[in-house]
Design goal:
It is built from 18 helices and twelve strands. By secondary structure, it is an alpha+beta fold. The chain has three domains: about 150 residues, Sandwich (Immunoglobulin-like), CATH 2.60.40; about 220 residues; about 100 residues, Orthogonal Bundle (Arc Repressor Mutant, subunit A), CATH 1.10.10. This is HTH luxR-type domain-containing protein.
Length: about 525
């Protein structure tokens, strides 16, 4: 008797374990039902619904995460879901993710006939109704009390299916709450974009232009229009274009971000090796960009995930290396926010890539984490950029004050020398004699030149009182028709240093780049 009881109990438990759970529609909140559904991969992509409907439940695989992740191989997946409802209840199947190529819903109505609804980004028609950022299917004609629905899904991107089965009141409340939060995120992102636009207009700095490109390409186009599906609100042709070429916008956004990070941290000077690494990453992103123009999503999908992870981690590493370890933020603490801005992006990128690779389950809040990290990054990076501008202003002010002090000392020295010269008789030397002094590197050359060409020196100082002693000496050599190499030998400088000094003299005297410096100085000497 005991043995019979054990056998009966074992059979009962086995039957319950093999039976698919039934979702009660009236008791559902706005949660994903990935664990309640069963899945089968159709590698041929040609199996009809009538065949799938006859499959034994053992052929299917039970869901392991709230959001189904079908990978990036482009295979067709079938989802089977059982639910129960009261006759007066109209259940709604809501898939809160628009980036799916094709989506076909199959079920039998109350008369036993097969109903087929075709949807998906490539299956929508211009006049199809789409709810917000996903797909809505009313199931009022399904059988009662228990019904089965089958969903055929395929995409060349990562196949993610956040599926909900709810009543209309629950759907309305949840969407109102969800869309309100998304509008707040988009409002903050828009303010960040306006701030960078204002700073770009004021400073003409390419840093603000590059970060604006990142915000537009990666947040508004990729996250809002592509991942969250708001591209459907711009029209079906626009939504499809973004959907098919999403990796183009991602690649272009990261190319701009790499350039932004390189210029901000001055990696070419600070970390030459990492600068070369980022150049290689830019080439890799460029390949993704080119491949995405031909809708090669099977190639670009996995590569984009890998580059996304590596690039985000290197952004954090390079900012820590330059700003924290090398003390780039000592004079402007606000720059430290730049490092803090990349921390949430790096952490979320690790979590997101592991979720997309199905190493860890894909949760309902994963994409919300990405949005939240992007907003935090935008705020902190903006503060870091503001700190960098403050640092530049403080350095310019300090340099201006030093120049003022040097100029005052120089003017006082000139006045003292002029007073002394007035008391002593002045012997003017000819240009030939001055040239001999210059060629023999006589220490008295500059003093005798000032005495002999006092009007020329005074005219130079009248045009630009900021000229330094070394720059006046350069003008003296040019007045004596010395070329660049001769000046370099006389002053014991490199040719490059002489050219740099000439550039500063041009700038201070306001000489056009096209004008010949020697001819300009000789003309000034003749008229003075």
């Amino acid at each position: 008797m005991r043995a019979i009881f054990i056998v009966v109990a074992f059979c009962t438990v086995s039957a319950l374990c093999n039976a698919q759970p039934v979702v009660q529609v009236e008791g559902q909140n706005f949660i994903n039902l990935g664990k309640s559904a069963y899945y089968w991969c159709d590698t041929t992509g040609k199996t009809p619904f009538e065949t799938v409907e006859k499959f034994n439940l053992k052929k299917f695989t039970a869901g392991k995460s709230p959001v189904f992740n079908g990978g990036t191989d482009g295979h067709v997946w079938w989802m089977k879901l059982r639910f129960s409802r009261k006759p007066e209840t109209t259940p709604y199947l809501f898939i809160d993710y628009a980036s799916i190529d094709t989506l076909c819903l199959f079920y039998r109505d109350t008369l036993g006939n097969v109903q087929h609804v075709h949807s998906g980004m490539l299956g929508l028609k211009q006049n199809d109704a789409v709810l917000g950022t996903g797909y809505i299917f009313p199931l009022q004609h399904t059988q009662t009390p228990v019904s089965e629905i089958y969903i055929r899904m395929q995409t060349m991107n990562t196949l993610l299916v956040p599926l909900k089965l709810i009543t209309e009141p629950v759907l309305n409340r949840a969407l109102t709450k969800d869309y309100s939060a998304q509008l707040i995120y988009m409002g903050i992102a828009l303010m960040i974009l306006i701030f960078h636009l204002f700073m770009f207009v004021m400073t003409r700095s390419k840093l603000f232009a590059l970060y604006m490109a990142r915000v537009i390409l990666l947040f508004f186009i990729t996250m809002v229009c592509y991942l969250q599906g708001y591209g459907l609100m711009l029209g079906l042709p626009v939504a499809r274009f973004i959907f098919l070429h999403a990796h183009f916008f991602i690649a272009l956004g990261y190319i701009c971000t790499i350039l932004f990070n390189t210029y901000f941290l001055k990696l070419k000077r600070q970390l030459p090796f990492l600068y070369q690494v980022f150049k290689i990453l830019n080439i890799a992103w460029g390949l993704v960009l080119i491949c995405s123009l031909w809708d090669a999503r099977s190639i670009t999908n996995a590569l984009t995930q890998l580059l996304f992870l590596i690039t985000s981690l290197l952004f954090l590493f390079s900012s820590i290396k330059v700003i924290v370890i090398r003390g780039y933020a000592k004079t402007a603490p606000f720059i430290s926010f730049y490092v803090l801005g990349w921390i949430p992006v790096a952490l979320v990128s690790i979590y997101l890539v592991l979720s997309l690779m199905a190493i860890i389950p894909f949760q309902s809040y994963t994409f919300n984490l990405l949005t939240f990290a992007a907003i935090i990054e935008g705020i902190l990076i903006s503060l870091g950029l503001f700190g960098q501008r403050l640092r530049l202003l403080s350095r310019h002010n300090a340099h201006f004050r030093r120049q003022q002090i040097l100029l005052q000392e120089q003017m006082e020295g000139y006045k003292k020398q002029l007073d002394e010269k007035k008391l002593a008789p002045v012997v003017h030397l000819s240009l030939k004699e001055l040239t001999t002094l210059a060629q023999t590197r006589d220490p008295a050359f500059m003093e005798r030149f000032r005495e002999s060409e006092a009007a020329f020196i005074q005219e130079l100082l009248r045009l630009s009182p900021q000229l330094l002693v070394a720059e006046l000496e350069l003008c003296a050599y040019i007045r004596l028709c010395f070329d660049t190499k001769e000046i370099a030998r006389a002053c014991r400088l490199s040719v490059r240093a002489v050219e740099s000094r000439k550039y500063r003299v041009r700038k201070k005297l306001g000489i056009d780049a096209d004008a010949n410096l020697q001819s300009w100085i000789l003309d000034l000497a003749r008229t003075s």
